[in-house]
Amino acid sequence: MVYQHRYLDGSPLTLPVGKVVCIGRNYLDHIRELNNVLPETPILFMKPATALVSLDEPIRLPAGRGECHHEVELAVLVGRELRNADAETARAAVAGYGIALDLTLRDLQNQLKKNGHPWETAKAFDGACPLSPFLKPDALPDPQATDVALQVNGEWRQQGNTRLMMMGVFALMAYISTHFTLQPGDVVLTGTPAGVGPLQSGAALLLRLADHDFNARLA
Ligand code: ZN
């Protein structure tokens, strides 16, 4: 099915489907678990619109490309154009909050990193960003103090809170907008807490954003 942004309450959302801009390392505990160096400036990368799929659909992993890891992340839907914006302006431009998986072909990414190559094929493949419906901005009382968690087959794998981000949600959006214009319908992924790991076909997932739970499953 063709992906379209939608609100959780079923009310219409007419924004187009744009790019997804992501930050590579934004939670200290996740940086430590991958033995990565603390970045001096945020590491940004993108997924194209073709990476977006609804969480309602079975998640399909690319075959024969090694381990595919889950990274559960707060997703922010951009409602207004942002270019060289400040954090305040970025906050006012938010059209909704959701929860996403930044699916990552980890073996491939490690190989690319080792060779000093870009990560696109490990991060930007078709279906690499399963995404929930969006809460309206006022439905998330404090985006900077929100639980973000993932269960795989009934077991908690990732349990984070957005207060543990090194660069906050709106500062991140502002920073991104100094490199890439954010357009209405774009999505920002805000980084993953610790606990990333490989996914297997048939797995049942539960993604938690504040007190909202979303079920998903792997094909
Ligand atoms: Zn990520």
Summarize the structure.
The chain is 16% helix and 29% strand. It is an alpha+beta fold.
Characterize the structure shown.
This protein is α+β, with helices and mostly antiparallel strands. The protein has helices at 28-33, 87-92, 106-114, 120-123, 169-177, and strands at residues 20-23, 44-47, 52-54, 68-70, 72-78, 94-101, 104-105, 129-131, 147-152, 155-161, 187-189, 197-198, 204-209, 212-217. A five-stranded mixed β-sheet has the order 2-1-11-5-6. A four-stranded antiparallel β-sheet has the order 10-9-13-14, with no helix packed on it. Strands 7-4-12 form a three-stranded antiparallel β-sheet. The protein starts with 19 loop residues before the first strand and ends with a strand. The model has no long low-confidence stretch (mean pLDDT 96). The structure holds zinc ion (ZN). Residues 22, 71, 73, 102, 189, 191-192 line the site of zinc ion.
**SS summary, helix count:** 5
Largest sheet, strands/sense/barrel: 5 strands, mixed
User: What is the average per-residue confidence, as pLDDT, rounded to a whole number?
Assistant: 96
**Unique ligands:** zinc ion
CATH architecture: Alpha-Beta Complex
What gross morphology would you assign?
globular
Number of strands: 14
CATH topology: Fumarylacetoacetate hydrolase, domain 2
Strand-and-helix sequence, N→C?
Answer: EHEEEEHEEHHEEEHEEEE
CATH class: Alpha Beta
Cα end-to-end separation = 15 Å
- Low-pLDDT runs: none
Tell me the domain tally: 1
Q: Spatial order of the strands in the main sheet?
A: 2-1-11-5-6
| Percent helix | 10-25%
CATH superfamily: Fumarylacetoacetase-like, C-terminal domain
Instruction: Kindly estimate the percentage of residues that lie in beta strands according to DSSP.
Output: 25-35%
Radius of gyration: 16 Å
Structural class estimated from helices and strands: alpha+beta
